[in-house]
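Intended use. Records like the one below are meant for learning the mapping from a protein sequence to its folded structure. Do not use them to infer anything beyond what is encoded.
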Amino acid sequence: MLLTSMVITALSVGATAWLAVETATRAAQEERGQLLSDDADVLRQLSGFAATHADWRDVYLTVRTLSRTTDRRIALTTITGRVIADSAPSLAVSVEAMRRR
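Structure written out for the chain above:
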């Protein structure tokens, strides 16, 4: 009887641990999928902006909207690191300035 109780207890603990790991893994995969979806949306919208505008002059509103929608900071830079638009302007530091440090 004692042996049976110990086996049942061990199996219960093992099953609970397995369920916790499975739940955490599934949640992480869903979050990763949402991040990839958000990245694709940001790329699509900025590419659409580029296709319909001659320059980036008015992109700030798009960047701010994307930031609010994704709840992430969006920074658009040139290939050399110069900031074109940043949803968090107080954090905007060009990559070139960081390289000089």
